Amino acid sequence: MVESVSSTLGLVRLRFAICYLLLVAIAGSHRRLLAVGYRFETYSRSRRSRRLPMNEWPLWEVFIRSQNGLSHKHVGSLHGADAKMAIENARDVYARRNEGISIWVVRSADLYASDPIDKGTFFDPAKNKIYRHPTFYTVPPEVKHL
Amino acid sequence: MYAQMVTPEKNGDESSPELADFEARIDAGDTIEARDWMPGGYRKTLIRQISQHAHSEIVGQLPEANWITRAPTLRRKAILLAKVQDEAGHGLYLYGAAETLGVSRQELINDLLAGKAKYSSIFNYPTLNWADIGAIGWLVDGAAIMNQIPLCRCSYGPYARAMIRICKEESFHQRQGFEIMTVMARGTSAQRSMAQDALNRWWWPSLMMFGPPDSQSPHTAESVRWKIKLLTNDQIRQRFIDQTVPQADYLGLTIPDSALKWNEETGHYDFGEIDWTEFYNVIKGHGPCNTQRLRTRRQAHADGAWVREAATAYAQKRLSRSK
Known about the structure:
The structure holds two protein chains of two kinds. By secondary structure, chain A is of the alpha+beta class. In chain A, 26% of the residues lie in helices and 14% in strands. Chain A contains four helices and three strands, in the order ααββαβα. In chain B, strand 1 and strand 2 form a beta hairpin. In chain B, helix 2 packs antiparallel against helix 3, helix 5 packs antiparallel against helix 6 and helix 5 (130-151) runs parallel beside helix 7 (189-208). The model of chain B has no long low-confidence stretch (mean pLDDT 92). Chains A and B meet through helix 1, strand 2 and helix 3 of A and helix 2, helix 3, helix 4, helix 6 and helix 11 of B.
């Protein structure tokens, strides 16, 4: 199948290979992680069994560090059979224009999130502690370097 | 527009306090994220809109990939490859955004392959020669950009962020197309005719990309209210025409519309009647390439099975080795 006489056919295969390798990242399926809050909820088939069912690839979240000195930033998600494939796919899909020098991938099932429903109460303790901000304090104008 | 025929879903619970909060957030310009409460209608409409958009990107690779092996120069081949690669990436960002709403990508792909899902009408037209690649980049990607820029501000976070990324990449697509048109329009008389012929064939289908006229789109109001549609079909279509006519003038090509005329009063171009029968025909599956597109997608999916299986088997092998 790979051996072909005509170079045109070879280029067709090359074209298909490139498109397929991108499309295979789309071929799997996995339920999205449910968020957790104080209640810890996670749904992941990959936790219950380490065997990957045929054609079902886990979902991964992708983080990219664009330049030396910056943090990794979340850029999106993709499917991949394992971490190595997920990183390579992330490079192919999320770093085509030199957007990154480093890639992290995390299985979506391993990403825990605070629950937006609790957002008000969960973050409430911070709201009335304005003394944590430097602007709370009055600095006499004659005092330098404070 | 990539979701030309998406009708917003109705909500069941018209007056719940959650709905009131949600609508207040939308009105305040808040961004809704994946785990936020949202009405069922909002979720369903978004899934349909985003998945149709994703399917459009993937099917949209086909008319252009048709000319990769026959690009006139190595430089143009490499550029076209990069463009088609980008479309695959765009499909991925959009499937990813749809998955945040609780649907699996496999379900969406199954619907596409089963012929149950829609994609943009424009990709049911054939690419007959290299000039078509120029016309597509210039007009089709141009139309897409017109639609996608407002969507960067839509209310649903994952979709808006995908749009921002897509818009950054899409602008090279339009320039690539315009460059091809420029070279041909300034070439031999045979090349000029080819370029004009491509414009003749792609102009009206590109205008149809924006969807039916507002008068025939009674459900636009709901999508606008939820801020998942920020401008009406007619508004974006008019904007596209106003921006593109001077570009055609620059090329020295004639837009195939005898009624096209600058209107000093309104500050816009008046244009001729669009043949909506053709549009609805194509949407219903009777366009020039509908059957072929779906057949090619199904074949591609079947042909790619060995790659998916091999990757899965390899991953399992590495896993068992590492134990």
